[in-house]
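Quick question: what would this complex look like in 3D?
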Amino acid sequence: MVASPPSFELLGTDPESSARRGVLHTGHGAVPTPAFMPVGTQGTVKGCTIDLLRQTGTTMLLGNTYHLALRPGADVVAELGGLHRFMGWDGPILTDSGGFQIFSLERLCRVTDQAVEFRSHVDGSRLALSPERAIALQEALGSDVAMVLDHVVALPCPGDEVRAACERTIAWAARCRGVASRRDQLLFAIVQGGLEPDLRAWCARELVTLDFAGYAVGGLSVGETAEEMYRMVEVTCPWLPADRPRYLMGVGRPEDILEAVRRGIDLFDCVLPTRNGRNALAFTATGPLRLRNARHSRDPRPLDPRCSCPACRHSRAYLHHLFRAGEMLGPMLLTLHNLTYYQALMASIRTAIEAGEYVEFSRQQLAQLRPQEG
Amino acid sequence: MVASPPSFELLGTDPESSARRGVLHTGHGAVPTPAFMPVGTQGTVKGCTIDLLRQTGTTMLLGNTYHLALRPGADVVAELGGLHRFMGWDGPILTDSGGFQIFSLERLCRVTDQAVEFRSHVDGSRLALSPERAIALQEALGSDVAMVLDHVVALPCPGDEVRAACERTIAWAARCRGVASRRDQLLFAIVQGGLEPDLRAWCARELVTLDFAGYAVGGLSVGETAEEMYRMVEVTCPWLPADRPRYLMGVGRPEDILEAVRRGIDLFDCVLPTRNGRNALAFTATGPLRLRNARHSRDPRPLDPRCSCPACRHSRAYLHHLFRAGEMLGPMLLTLHNLTYYQALMASIRTAIEAGEYVEFSRQQLAQLRPQEG
């Protein structure tokens, strides 16, 4: 067990909400918060070269321990110099622990107090993931932030199952804390508790006594409504120490980010900008555009005239053509556009908090985000 | 019928071979020759943003009239400002005429003296491509170099069929010449004649009397041996005027380019660097590498330590992982690497010709290109 270095600097808090402006310091650089991490599941953010990724304004990435452990193997990544060198990204990286795959690969895994046993989705082989193993894998990958192994359940879920998963999550967090040994790696705990405010609060208090470098709100974006998710953020954040970063895992849509920042969240990750981009959906300040729609076929306008991304040097008609013709460049360009949109949103969120105007800013943004047709 | 402006500048010829160093001047910039054009079939070089494409050293692209006419339609491209603006490429573009699709889509088309009738591979609709229509489409696309419609036959082919296709090609070239009206578009004729030296020479002489801005050697790389192809280049080039560029269509491997330059070719296009890149094959100075091969799985070396492309900032192990994991970034990076390799080869070819050392240079290059295992 190592003492966490002071890694988070709280620069200020919005006067009318719980929105926070901060900086997360890591061995691979500083991350201004609130921040959004694109997801690089298998050692690459799908469709982006490292240079293009950096041009979107991205400062920090997420990598998936479960996927990298199966292929190419954490030992291979370690042998090749760690995840940063392997994928060529010299900025901060956070790795998840594999806990989310308990939920997403439910039929392929079995959970006991000791560990999660996965049957590999790649080749059917077995992978036993204990808290100790989750830390060892992340230490081999060499991420800047490691996550404890947690037990995520699908919602809705019977209360006693939520409680059991929550207890297991706390016990596993303690075991992770006990074996973590890299001084250059921050360890974040994960608050579970389903949609039960009491369980959320209890889980948060228990984890805080263990003293982690940061705290995540986990087990959300798994079937509940947006309002239920916002409510869980709202009941959890007050129990977390102000001087540690707060990370809402797997969230979300632009409106979710705006709502969660208002309730005190500092860090986000989500596949939406990249996955939706590959599926021809472009995020814009006035809602999403579906580029496969025939109404774009002769439209000479860019997605957003104020956007500086490579997609916005082309017409909507060209982007429409690329998707109709099945060209890789369509998914590539919309991925870049959506990440640029998300990072610009985060930058404007930070500016609004600095100006003490976050509530009014988020109200305006949310009003604009009503979906367009098409 | 418009007079062709002087568009090709012959800077010098190798003292010991027919290799030529020149410049092709177009409305969108000058192209040092010998030059290689990547293929952008559907208005994009697959997997490359425009910036990344330019970084490979590419100066001129090829677009496919047949494909663009079917989708999105030449009228749509024209309405959106022409092919340059549509795809965001402000350098020179050459468009083919659709003649090659007579060969490649043989079962979907019927050829008469009047026109080729295609059944669209996209939606089954009919497209009648006459010489006049081929020019109209290319004028709508607004390419810098247009190609006449020619009749390509699969080889081997009975002599009388080759002769008939050759006669038709000459007649169609004259009809194209008669209707071409854009003063900012160069028109190149295409020498056919299968593997018959006499037919090749006759076709070349007939086309030269019609006075085109450039001449292509067509109907090769369609089933014949490399030696037969080199022989056809050798018997055709002497009949072409020294002050016009010579374009070997659809060729080829690095060794083919080295051999054809020695025989007097100035321009090339081929899908090999891009298509093979997507299929995990990397070109290197010492022959191709197959990145799916397990022997690369822990190899920390780049493909080529002297290469400056985005792929060569990664290890072979990482590239191997990307292909094994089915990640888009694998095809993207190997496409960029292969195009960078081809453009660096062309640059070194030009330097060797300038130095009057082309024969020795090409001999050394060919000796190195023996395939590696793997």
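Answer marked as accepted. Residues 20-270 of chain A form a domain with the TIM Barrel fold (CATH 3.20.20.105).
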